[in-house]
UniProtKB/TrEMBL annotation:
<keyword id="KW-1133">Transmembrane helix</keyword>
<keyword id="KW-0472">Membrane</keyword>
<comment type="similarity">
    <text>Belongs to the autoinducer-2 exporter (AI-2E) (TC 2.A.86) family.</text>
</comment>
<feature type="transmembrane region" description="Helical">
    <location>
        <begin position="250"/>
        <end position="275"/>
    </location>
</feature>
<dbReference type="GO" id="GO:0016020">
    <property type="term" value="C:membrane"/>
</dbReference>
<feature type="transmembrane region" description="Helical">
    <location>
        <begin position="165"/>
        <end position="185"/>
    </location>
</feature>
<dbReference type="GO" id="GO:0055085">
    <property type="term" value="P:transmembrane transport"/>
</dbReference>
<dbReference type="Pfam" id="PF01594">
    <property type="entry name" value="AI-2E_transport"/>
</dbReference>
<feature type="transmembrane region" description="Helical">
    <location>
        <begin position="282"/>
        <end position="302"/>
    </location>
</feature>
<feature type="transmembrane region" description="Helical">
    <location>
        <begin position="322"/>
        <end position="348"/>
    </location>
</feature>
<feature type="transmembrane region" description="Helical">
    <location>
        <begin position="63"/>
        <end position="85"/>
    </location>
</feature>
<dbReference type="InterPro" id="IPR014227">
    <property type="entry name" value="YtvI-like"/>
</dbReference>
<dbReference type="InterPro" id="IPR002549">
    <property type="entry name" value="AI-2E-like"/>
</dbReference>
<feature type="transmembrane region" description="Helical">
    <location>
        <begin position="33"/>
        <end position="51"/>
    </location>
</feature>
<feature type="transmembrane region" description="Helical">
    <location>
        <begin position="9"/>
        <end position="27"/>
    </location>
</feature>
<feature type="transmembrane region" description="Helical">
    <location>
        <begin position="223"/>
        <end position="244"/>
    </location>
</feature>
<keyword id="KW-0812">Transmembrane</keyword>
Length: 362
């Protein structure tokens, strides 16, 4: 390796480190601050074809169509998310509230029966063991009861304290709605203004960036729509085989929840499994566990593959970027880091950046 090659390598590495640092700072500290406005722009961008169609079909001004469709879109999504969230919270809270009663009626007698059977068997072999088993039974019963009570009170406190996050969330939604209205109403003016601020030597860059961003957004939505459909099919078939009443409706509800941040399928199925175990429905709980494991395995295989194919990345690269993104940035990183890698790849492939590329000699 020549001196010039070493210098180029060092410069490229410093350049890469600088980009990585900027990406880290943006995702970690800036993205959450501008997220309402990013959402606002994306909503306006996705609704733009519908706004044009509605304006032409119903012969109304573009601004009126934009306001109406943006408000209807947010109202519909908010109603659906609120309904799902309230159903989920009520289900979990009612189950936790009934947990001590369920323990007293079902779990404690079951524990007592188990130890009584063990005590009878031990008495035939060694009478000295009877007192030991009775002491253990009393200790286990007391400890389990206190744990159940603690879990119940802790979860209820958590659900109550989580209400404190609602004002910040509500404020973010308000800003997202307002920014969507501004973006949708004055979309052409805003995009033209941003395009004019770019260097004259590359006037088409903004259009190129917008096209790429739109393509990535639609591909992400398509990939996750396929994942949601697969999850729904698995849940519907599994719940029907388990003999659950209203299996199709429950599968649809969980599939929608699976699309939401943080919760996922486990946010519903795992508490459901514990409730069934507490109530002594062991075969049903085992069936739910097998169904959940199947859904988790299939999703972990399909998610990087589907999204990687849509975005033009190898599934292994997609899997690594999703894992690293979640570990470093939390849920935001699950989407932000793969998108960042796609953007860098796009810029690299189209000679917008020249990292690690050999300069052509004249």
């Amino acid at each position: 390796m020549t001196i010039d090659q070493k210098k180029n390598f060092i410069i490229n590495m410093m350049y890469f480190a600088l980009i990585a640092g900027i990406v880290y700072i943006f995702i970690k500290h800036v993205l959450i601050l501008v997220m309402p406005f990013i959402i606002g722009f994306l909503v306006a961008l996705l609704l733009r074809p519908v706004i044009k169609l509605a304006s032409n079909k119903f012969h109304v001004p573009n601004k009126i169509a934009a306001v109406a469709l943006v408000l209807l879109s947010y109202a519909g999504v908010s109603s659906l998310v609120s309904w799902i969230g309230m159903r989920f919270v009520i289900l979990i809270k009612n189950s936790i509230v009934r947990l001590p009663e369920t323990y007293a009626i079902q779990i404690e007698p079951a524990i007592r029966d188990i130890f009584e059977n063990v005590e009878k068997a031990s008495a035939k072999l060694d009478p000295m063991m009877v007192q030991v088993i009775q002491d253990i039974a009393a200790s286990v019963s007391q400890s389990t009861g206190s744990v159940i009570t603690k879990i119940s009170s802790t979860v209820i406190d958590f659900l109550s304290s989580s209400v404190s996050f609602l004002p910040g969330l509500f404020l973010g939604i308000i800003f997202a709605v307002i920014s969507s209205l501004f973006f949708a109403i004055d979309y052409n003016k805003i995009t033209a203004y941003l395009s004019n601020r770019l260097p004259a030597k590359n006037p088409g860059l903004f259009t190129e960036i917008k096209t790429m961003a739109t393509g990535i957004g639609f591909k992400y939505v398509k990939a996750y729509a396929i994942l949601m459909a697969v999850t729904f099919a698995e849940l519907a078939i599994g719940l029907l085989l388990l003999g659950v009443d209203g299996a199709i409706e429950i599968a649809a509800l969980i599939a929608v929840i699976d699309f939401l941040p943080v919760l996922g399928t486990g946010g519903v199925v795992i508490p459901w499994i514990f409730i069934e175990l507490i109530q002594g429905n062991f075969p049903f709980a085992l069936g739910l566990t097998a169904l959940y494991l199947l859904i988790t395995v299939v999703r972990n295989i399909l998610e990087p593959k589907l999204i990687g194919e849509q975005l033009g990345l190898h599934p292994l690269i997609m899997l690594i970027s999703m894992y690293v993104g979640v570990k470093i940035f939390g849920f935001v990183g699950l989407i932000a880091l793969p998108v960042t890698i796609v953007v860098i790849k796009y810029l690299y492939d189209n000679d917008k950046i020249h990292m690690f590329k050999q300069e052509k000699s004249l």
